Amino acid sequence: MGAITLKVNGKQVTVDAAPRTLLVELLREPLQLTGTHVGCDTSQCGSCTVLVDGRSIKACTMLAVEAAGTEVTTIEGLAQGGRLHPMQEAFQSCHGLQCGFCTPGMILSAVDCLKQNPTADERDVREWLEGNICRCTGYHNIVKAVLSCRDRMAQSKEG
Amino acid sequence: MRDFNFHRPASVAEAVGLLRKHSGGKFLAGGQSLLPVLKLDMADPSDLISLSGIAELRGIRVEGNTLIIGAGMRHAEVAQSPEVQRTIPGLARLADHIGDAQVRNRGTLGGSLAHADPAADYPAAIVALNGTVQTDRRTIAADDFFTGLFETALRPDEVITAVRFPVPTRCAYAKFGSHASKYALVGVMVAKTADGVRVAVTGAGPYAFRAAALETALGQSFSVAAIEALGENLGVRADDLNNTAEASGAYRKHLIAVLAKRAVAACL
Ligand SMILES: Cc1cc2nc3c(=O)[nH]c(=O)nc-3n(C[C@H](O)[C@H](O)[C@H](O)COP(=O)(O)OP(=O)(O)OC[C@H]3O[C@@H](n4cnc5c(N)ncnc54)[C@H](O)[C@@H]3O)c2cc1C
Ligand code: FES
Ligand code: FES
User: Fold this and answer.
1) Which residues sit with their C-beta closer than 6 Å to ligand 2?
2) Running DSSP on this structure, what letter comes out for residue B22?
3) What is the pLDDT of residues B75-124, one digit of tens each?
4) What is the CATH number of domain B170-267?
5) Spatial distance between the Cα atoms of B243 and B186, rounded to a whole number of angstroms
6) Nearest chain A residue (CA) to B106
7) Which of the following CATH numbers is that of domain A86-158: 3.30.2010.10, 3.40.50.720, 2.60.120.10, 1.10.150.120?
8) pTM over 0.95
């Protein structure tokens, strides 16, 4: 066991964990941030996606010790001051989710997508979301949500 | 996954020293191949020596007619690098289609080459571009680097520090990815260089190999028609190619011709 210090959703935390602990285990168990899901544990489904220093990664495929000194954002950290993040609002208004299992990972991945490419078109969004599997929606409304968030963010920049 | 001791050295020399001291250990880069292997208990290292804190492994620069990429550069960084896009755009595109966005945000060039997955994309690039692998102690030519299925010329305690890619006149990569993982069922990189045409195929054999018949044909006439004229005579036998539930050897052979044509068309 060793102490790992990192920032999670803006707060500095220090947790004792064995080297083999995965980042997703650290988040879900000692830190109780169970919004980060484990769908496959084999690096395929993306439901464990979180942001590490702003970039989307699969938390089931990163050691917690490798996140020492970084800033991690989980779905619990997206809303600010009681207001949902525009991407969360877009998923809600476009019906971008059904059972919700894939949603936290999908939303964090989508946030990274628009950060990397604020003018992403439908094809860019579909390609970007290849690492996130959804068993319910057929992806259509997810893509719609990301594009609607893109438009809203572009408007608020102009306005 | 079994437990191990974890180290995060700050220099290549320190990393090599740690591996010599803990001979049951392994280097860890982006973890996108190694962690899945450990989860399956297919390896049981006593120690993991992380390369993520080593500044020497970072960076991308152009020296004369050579593009040099640090082994620790992540796939997304290679894809987005202005130097790579300017000198070898075909390589930037290849990196941009490895796995998915999350994999590209973690996985590294050095890790991909050291792991030597038969279906990985970078091996096609280093072989077609006639690159060299720079390690902490020597340089290894691409043609000598891959030695078998998941096997390379690297010593267990040897660290890839950078890869040198001679800038070609033109190059393009075309792949047919597995729908589940995006790994190449077959991928073909065609490079037109001052010294002739090189064609490398990944996904079809135990490791990336050069397709001599295609190179000769394209050397005489760099065109889609030159590949069509070869018909079945690609210099590879379907029986020698990977044969899995996802794709038979015969299908992979068919894909080699199709993808080589696409790559040539993209170069023209
Ligand atoms: C879902 C998924 C999809 C993928 N799809 C693709 C794909 O389409 N195409 C593709 O090419 N790859 C794909 N990959 C693999 C990915 O590209 C990996 O990032 C890459 O194979 C390994 O790089 P890494 O940095 O993650 O290395 P690690 O997993 O950390 O290490 C892999 C091996 O390399 C050794 N190693 C690492 N760095 C060095 C070094 N500098 N010197 C010496 N040894 C070193 C390690 O000891 C280990 O044995 C995929 C992976 C996943 C999880
Ligand atoms: S749980 Fe991490 S990718 Fe599926
Ligand atoms: S909403 Fe159910 S898996 Fe995506």
Assistant:
1) A 38-41, 43-48, 58, 60
2) S
3) 999 999 999 999 999 999 999 999 999 999 999 999 999 999 999 999 99
4) 3.30.390.50
5) 12
6) A57
7) 1.10.150.120
8) yes
